[in-house]
What we know:
This protein is of the alpha+beta class.
Amino acid sequence: MSKAKQEGFIKFLSKVPFFSEVKVSSLRHLCVGLKEENYGKNQTIFKKGDEGDSMYVIVDGSVKVHENNYIFSTMQKGECFGEYALIDDQKRSAAVSTLENTTLIKINRDRFLDIMSSDSGFSLGILTVLIKRHRNIDTIQENLSNSKQALELANSKMKGLIEGAMDAIIMFDSNYRIVLTNPSAEKLLENDDALQRNVLYFFDEESAEVIESLIDEGLKNTAKTINNFIPNIVKVIGSNETETLNEGTISKYGNETETFYTLILRNIEERIEAEDQISLLTKQTEYLEEEIKELTSGYGIIAEDIKMQNVLNLVKHVAPTDATVLVNGETGTGKELVSRAIHEASQRSDKPLIRINCGAIPANLIESELFGHKKGAFTGATADRKGRFLLADKGTIFLDEIGEMPIELQPKLLRVIQEGEFDPVGSSETIKVNVRIIAATHRDLLQHAADGKFREDLYYRLNVFPIEVPALRDRGNDICLIANEMIKHFAKKLNKPINDLSENDKSLLMSYHWPGNVRELQNLIERAIIVTKNGTINIKEIIPDSKPNDSEPQESSKDKIYTSKELLNLEKENILKALRETRWKISGKNGAAELLQLPPTTLASKIKAHNIERPI
């Protein structure tokens, strides 16, 4: 069939009432392989008693439905006949012959049922038409009331339509006695012999009252028909006590002497379950958003110390911009918290903050993680995957431990920063993104670049707005404030009442050098609360290298006399502090040697003598 012919069929069938609710895409499926059949005047299309396997649509001309010489009805262009043959294989109940030269479209039952089962849009459109036909049954009955044979034909058609409906259809009389059920209704009621039973027995009390009230309103209505959507959910209780939730409509039809009602019910439990799941997920999302807000409210950073106050001021200045930020600081100082604070205070706060730890992902996988890949791009790539940059579009991406990124991947990151675009692994398609980049590292990236492990041009692109997060040991009384907040948090979480820190406890916390920074403090506090039994934390026990048996308070540094070993330890700590301050730059301007006012060669000797090694 030519494409033009097929489109002609589609256009024609879309105007036929039987297919009026079917979408064009579904009609296109139906029209594949359809052909026109031509008949001359007074030619028989089929006889009464023939086995039916097809319906017909009149394209041109006219036909009569008859038995011998008795004519039940005539049909013109655009009308259908033989529809019930699409439902069952019963013999034709009447003959159909042409009144003039006539062109028909023949639709085979097998083809029709195949599309009904495979195309939900087609079946929904057909069922909509069938239900509409059913609701106009009184009109059909009035038109065919003078012909018993025609009425039987209409009832036969209607039965096929009702029995094929997926919704439960229950008809009952003015005494609430069921007079008809379709297979879907029998399944819903868990009863295949519900005829003459009171329909209200199958509902819970509330639903029964709603249906009674609608019928009472219908009785007051002088119109022969009503069609009301039931405002409440209808709870059906089957014969096996199975309860289901349904939505439905109720319609009235009949005449002056007899009235019937049609109840159409559709099970909506799956939809309600899906809506409940969506509601739950929405509430969980709101809860998590509140948790994040609580975590970062006031940036969630305790900052009495001037160094952290300066960090917060920098956050306030850079957050409203889209500038790339490089957060420097030792491991465990809270670089991610600072990054979250920048995102939450930015205009992108309603968009995602996507985090990736460049040091935690194998070098052969990090490119795929960042930029995604196409199916088959490498062994194991069984499906397309979106990368973190695409997920962060319109939001922020946090590249933690940026110094660990493989150098061969750094040009691709540089391209994203400069051009806002990248190519997924295994794809030639260029993807544009609008992403704000925040990077963090504990390394001296400039020195890293000098060592050939980091691109210098990438460093300068990242270092647009540097923020240095101070080590915990350099934050003064913030150590005690943070410890107290952690104690309150873990005490509540572990349901253990804990006393406040004593002055001696605070002194111990302040004197420890905290190589693991805030993360180490958090771990030690949590461990201490877990093991405590009397509500008091023993700070001496949790601080590494402290002496639990030493009950004397610490001597003030002013009065203390140091041993030679203690002096060596003090010198080591002082050198370490200078190295950290200068980010391990030994010689040259602003180097540790200049800060300590020592010759670089002398400082190098002391570093070697104290076995000082730069942390990785």
